[in-house]
Write a structure and sequence with these properties.
This protein is mostly helical. Helix 5 runs antiparallel to helix 6, helix 10 packs parallel to helix 13 and helix 12 packs across helix 13. The chain contains 18 helices and no strands.
Length: 463
């Protein structure tokens, strides 16, 4: 199968990406290509998840140590989230113009540079440099998040959630190991004159360089450019790269608006509660090993069960969004009433991860369903911008709430964010329920999302 690895010159507009020829690909060849791309993305996610988790697990503690006060502890994870939001726009634009591979590689390289800046800030006791490094560190999270959409580029419409969830699941291996490697990584730099909490960032930078090398060398052909080549009749106008067009596409679809809302709210609730949990555990006598264990359980909840969420979401996006809301509410109840019970806090954080997984997988698949193909990469970048900007605000507020009112109030406020999301989900579901009833559909039966005419006509897809 001969598929180009880069965009061919456009015939109408210099910024337009259009293949020179249509490429007839059989089902067997396309299935093999999907497996190849998925294997590479899975391997990249394992490395990326390890790098992000090994650093982020200790970022609030490092910020408190360098900043000198608990009130600024939440600024380190907030800076990471803000950096992820900041880089999501240019990286998505680069992916739209040049394909997934250049954007993913650049994201990991910026993350590695950020890890180095964090280490320098810790050694120099320079809080501003530390925060700047954490912001650049967030580009690696952006690359990890965008990988899930890369998995959906070649997936059939009825299997998009499963494709997304498989790449999300791959993060489990690195992400669970990461926090437990934080203590050994810290001890490994004891003779280098840097704080123990900075050691994990040194190792994270090395891991990000490995992930960038893997993607640069092995992710061929590029999944996004290949998907375009397989749909030669699809629109390739420059507006597909415009975030103004992405916003217009989202505004035009109630389901796309719901998808953006569930991704943003679930991520905000997760970041706000998770970022302050190490501080809360520290108040009740937990050491670094126990904190790492609790965070590992949380990350297992985020990623390990994503294939189940994907399978459920391919049967119906909205029921899984409802499950997301229920799980996040239960998590806030458990964590907010835990007090000195480390086991209850760990249980709450595990359920928090499950709720986030349901929201991310179902919301990402719903967004991909709800916008036209030409606007998808930009809309996906817009999604990551909104989710991380919202979570950045939540993370910053979490530190202040923690300092002034405590961990229980923080969980209560996080749960309050679920109320408008619940209302929006119900409002979005009602018109669909009426339409199903009018058409004689079976009430209560989950249905896979219907493919658009463009998707149904895609070569190599199966019904």
């Amino acid at each position: 199968m001969d598929i180009p690895d880069g965009p061919a010159p456009a015939s109408h507009h210099p910024a337009t990406t259009r293949p020179a020829h249509p490429f007839p690909v059989g089902p067997e060849e396309l299935a093999a290509l999907r497996r190849r791309v998925t294997r590479v993305l899975v391997a990249g996610q394992i490395l990326g998840g390890l790098g992000v988790a090994v650093g982020v697990a200790l970022s609030p503690l490092l910020a408190r140590q360098v900043g000198g006060t608990e009130a600024v502890a939440g600024l380190a994870p907030t800076a990471t989230v803000a950096g992820t939001a900041l880089f999501s726009v240019p990286l998505a634009a680069l992916m739209t113009a040049r394909g997934r591979r250049p954007g993913l590689v650049l994201g990991y390289l910026i993350g590695a540079a950020g890890a180095g800046a964090v280490v320098a800030g810790a050694m120099l006791d320079h809080f501003v440099l530390l925060l700047a490094g954490m912001a650049a560190f967030g580009a690696s999270s952006c690359a990890n998040l965008q990988s899930r959409f890369a998995a959906a580029d070649l997936a059939e419409p009825g299997r998009r959630a499963r494709a997304i969830s498989l790449v999300v699941w791959a993060t489990t291996i690195g992400a669970v190991l990461g926090p437990n490697l934080a203590a050994p990584a810290g001890r490994s730099v004891a003779g280098l004159g840097m704080p123990e909490a900075a050691g994990p960032f040194l190792w994270a930078g090395v891991v990000f360089l490995a992930a960038a090398l893997l993607v640069a060398v092995v992710l061929r052909p590029d999944p996004l450019l290949t998907a375009r080549a397989l749909e030669p009749g699809a629109e390739r106008a420059p507006k597909g790269r415009s975030f103004r067009a992405a916003r217009a596409a989202v505004r035009a679809s109630p389901r796309a608006r719901l998808a953006l809302a569930v991704i943003a709210v679930s991520h905000t609730v997760m970041v706000s509660v998770m970022s302050m949990t190490p501080v809360a555990l520290g108040h009740h006598g937990a050491g670094i090993e126990l904190i790492g264990l609790v965070i590992s359980g949380h990350i297992a909840g985020m990623y390990a069960f994503s294939p189940l969420m994907g399978r459920l979401a391919d049967r119906g996006r909205l029921p899984v969004i409802g499950l997301c809301v229920a799980l996040l509410g239960c998590a806030a109840l458990l964590s907010g009433t835990a007090g000195a019970s480390h086991g209850r806090t760990a249980a709450g954080l595990f359920v928090l991860g499950l709720g986030w997984s349901a929201g991310l997988v179902a919301g990402s698949a719903l967004l991909t369903d709800a916008v036209p193909q030409a606007a998808r990469p930009a809309a996906q970048g817009l999604s990551d911008l909104v989710m991380n900007a919202s979570a950045g605000v939540g993370g910053a507020a979490a530190g202040l709430v923690m300092a002034q009112a405590g961990y229980g109030v923080l969980n209560l406020l996080a749960a309050a964010l679920l109320l408008p999301l619940t209302a929006l989900t119900v409002m979005t579901a009602l018109p669909r329920s009426r339409a199903t009833g009018a058409a004689g559909g079976l009430p209560g039966r989950a249905q896979a999302p219907a493919a658009s005419p463009e998707e149904s006509a895609a070569p190599g897809s199966s019904s």
